[in-house]
Every structure is written in C-alpha cells, then in structure tokens.
Design goal:
By secondary structure, this protein is mostly helical. The protein has a single domain, classed as Up-down Bundle (F1FO ATP Synthase). The chain has three helices and no strands. It starts with a helix and ends with a helix. The relative contact order is 0.20. The model has no long low-confidence stretch (mean pLDDT 90).
C-alpha cells in the first residue's frame, strides 16, 4: 500500500510541470503584448498576474495532495 501512496504522491506533484509551462506561455504572451502596445500595459499586467496566480494554484494543490498522501496513514 505504501508503494501506491508514493506513486500517487509522485503523480500529484507532476502537476507542477503544467504550472511551469502555463506560466512560461503567459509570460511570453504578456511580453509580446506589451512590446506591441506599451500603452496597454496597465490593462495587460493585472490579467497576467491573475493567470499566473491560477496556474500556480494548481501546482500548490498538487503539492498539498502529495503531502496529504504521504503523511496519511
């Protein structure tokens, strides 16, 4: 049973990969948008930070799930 718990925790932590890719794509899009229209940066940056927060929350959820799986007995 401990093996299955460890595998489940590892799979839960893999969600961090998706968050990293999502944040990278968001940063790239934001940099391109601001370089094309610098005057719109006031409207672009809040949406960027919202997207980054949502992407990062998936990684945090994965970490919490893996910690719960490892320490629950």
């Amino acid at each position: 049973m401990e093996l299955m718990t460890a595998i489940g925790a590892g799979i839960a932590v893999i969600s961090g990969i998706g968050a990293g890719v999502g944040i990278g794509i968001a940063t790239s899009g934001t940099a391109q948008a601001i370089s094309r229209q610098p005057e719109a940066s006031g409207k672009i940056l809040p949406m960027f930070f919202l997207g980054v927060a949502l992407a990062e929350s998936t990684a945090i959820y994965g970490l919490v799930i893996s910690i719960l799986l490892i320490f629950s007995k």
